[in-house]
Amino acid sequence: MTRETTILIIDDDTDLRQALVEQFDLEPGFGGVGAANAAEGLAAAESEKPAVIVLDVSLPDMDGFDACRKLREQGVKAPIIMLTGAAQEEEHQVQGLDAGANDYVLKPFKFSVLLARIRAHLRSHEASEDAVYRIGPYEFRPSMRVLVDQTQKKVRLTDKETSILRYLYRSGEKPVGREELLREVWGYNSNVTTHTLETHIYRLRQKIEPDAQSPKLLITETGGYRLQV
Prior knowledge:
Blueprint: E1 5-10, H1 14-26, E2 30-35, H2 38-48, E3 52-56, H3 64-73, E4 80-85, H4 89-99, E5 103-107, H5 111-126, E6 133-135, E7 138-141, E8 146-148, E9 154-156, H6 159-170, E10 176-177, H7 178-186, H8 194-208, E11 218-221, E12 224-227
Parallel strand pairs: 1-2, 1-3, 3-4, 4-5
Antiparallel strand pairs: 6-7, 7-8, 8-9, 10-12, 11-12
Helix pairs in contact: 2-3, 6-7
DNA-binding region: 130-229
Domain OmpR/PhoB-type: 130-229
GO cellular component, one term: protein-DNA complex
């Protein structure tokens, strides 16, 4: 099972919101969370830490552009895709981008189109400096190659350590075999052996585990490893 990517849908159209939540729940690797207004959406963004936010322009308690600004002021770095009607397309596009949105989609739309936009923004976001993942007591910032603990102390990582953590994180609860991890992190290289991987795992545990002899985050499974986040 891969780690679930949460999509927050903020829209007062009950039928559309529920339909999108259900469709994301059915999509492998995704999960949907709905909010009927800006206040609920701001709270959900704080509690759920969504990977992407789909935000309607027209909300009952707040203008969607103001809600977008508040999300950014709240520290939300996730991509925000705004939903707008065709009649106001150009005007809303400019307002949305000015408010901090990443993209907009015209209503009515096909789910496949929205999903494709979301996947594209996820790929871009993961490669950006804004991508942050939670691993135990740490914030993992792969672009900066660091883990930041609750006291804001930084644990510096090598390129390979960063790649190991990122691949294990994306694999979720599924243990990753040593050969697979070698292939994904080092690529095809006949000179690299599982001993190389085990050495990197050992050094990584020295950095992130309170007791490297009894790891709680980077767990050894039969034939491989997984992250306990």
